[in-house]
Structures are given as structure tokens and as C-alpha cells.
Amino acid sequence: MTSATESRSLTSDQSQTDRQLVGRVQNGERAAFDLLVIRYQSRVASIISRYIHDSQDVLDLTQESFVKAYRAIGRFRGDSAFYTWLYRIAVNTAKNHLEARGRRPLAVMEVEDAEQLDAAPGLRDLGSPEKQLQRDQLQTAIDGALDELPEELRSALLLREADGLSYEDIAQVLECPIGTVRSRIFRARDAIDRRIAPMLET
């Protein structure tokens, strides 16, 4: 099992490698950017899929995000980790895509994802086949609660619970203070907890 110290070391090594690759790209080495694409394409696709559910659109927007990153990489100065900078581009690309079509970003969180919320112990009891109906009802309630959240709350919660970003990384992706991130996540969790609490009691 990886210790906290080892985990921090691996993250540091990853960031250092990213900075080295970014430096090579900035020096005109296109192949180095291809390595960054390989490293992060699945994570970028994952975050875009939190906003957009058409698989072809996800693929197209993932590619668009990397094109934007490549064009802007000369302005990347390393003030944040490369992947948080890339995440911000991906989030903005997804939102812009929806806004261009006059659609509000949708949010879908699976029951398994929601197990990470404060109400988690109650959710784990719904796995048996005979309770599939209750599971479906709970899924619908979670989806509804997420869809009703203001965009800034929904984005912060999904980046934390679904994508596993730290508060610091979320602050950089959403371009707001860490205290604001914590507040948004707390409010989002509270709203969802209140929505599904009656179902968990039964």
C-alpha cells in the first residue's frame, strides 16, 4: 500500500515530468506534446463526459481541448500543475459547447459515485437485486438533485467526488479561492443529502 509520503513523492515526480515535457513542447518538440496527450486523454474525456453525454461529442471535445492546450502552451508558466491547467481548458471547452447550443450543463452521478458523499453508509445497502427499484429511484433522486444545483456548486462537487481532485486543484480549475471551493462542496453535499435523506430512512 502506498504511504502518504510515497504518494506525495509520486505526485511530485509526475509534476516534474510534466514540466519537463511542457518545456520540450515550448522549445518546439511536438512529439513531447503527444506524450502529454497519451498521459491525460482518458482523464480529459472523463471530465468532459460529466457535462456531455454524447460519446462522439466527448471525443471531439477532448481533441478540441488538446488543440487549445497546444496552441496556448507557450503561455503556460507553471503557476499551477499542468493537469489542473489542462482540466480548466477541458471544463471551459465543455461549457462553451453547451452554451453555444443553448443548453445548461447536465450532471449525472452514478449511485456508486455518490457513495463518496456523507450519506454513503446508507447507499451501500441497495446493491441486492430485489432492491433494484429503490436503487433506480435513488439514482433518479441523485440525478435530479445534481441537475438542480447551481452550476458553480455542481462543478465543484463533481471535480471533487467524481474526478478526485484536491481542493487546491479545484480552486485552480474553477479559478476561485480554496475557501470558496470548500463552501461550494459543502453546500452541494448538503443539498443532495437533504434530497435523498427521506429515501435512506426507508
TrEMBL record:
| Top-level lineage group | Bacteria
Where is the region Disordered? 1-23
Q: Output one GO BP term.
A: DNA-templated transcription initiation
Keyword check for Ubl conjugation: no
Keyword list (alphabetical) reads:
DNA-binding, Sigma factor, Transcription, Transcription regulation
Specify the RNA polymerase sigma factor 70 region 4 type domain's residue ranges: 141-191
Q: Which InterPro entries match?
A: RNA_pol_sigma-70-like (IPR039425), RNA_pol_sigma-70_dom (IPR014284), RNA_pol_sigma70_ECF_CS (IPR000838), RNA_pol_sigma70_r2 (IPR007627), RNA_pol_sigma70_r4_t2 (IPR013249), RNA_pol_sigma70_RpoE (IPR014286), RNA_pol_sigma_r2 (IPR013325), RNA_pol_sigma_r3/r4-like (IPR013324)
Q: Which GO terms describe its molecular function?
A: DNA binding; sigma factor activity
**In what ranges is there compositional bias, type Polar residues?**
1-19
Q: Where is the RNA polymerase sigma-70 region domain?
A: 36-103
Question: Record keywords: DNA-binding included?
Answer: yes
Q: Which Pfam families match?
A: Sigma70_r2, Sigma70_r4_2
* Family named by the database record: Belongs to the sigma-70 factor family. ECF subfamily.
Q: What is this protein called?
A: RNA polymerase sigma factor
As recorded in Swiss-Prot or TrEMBL, the protein's gene is named: rpoE
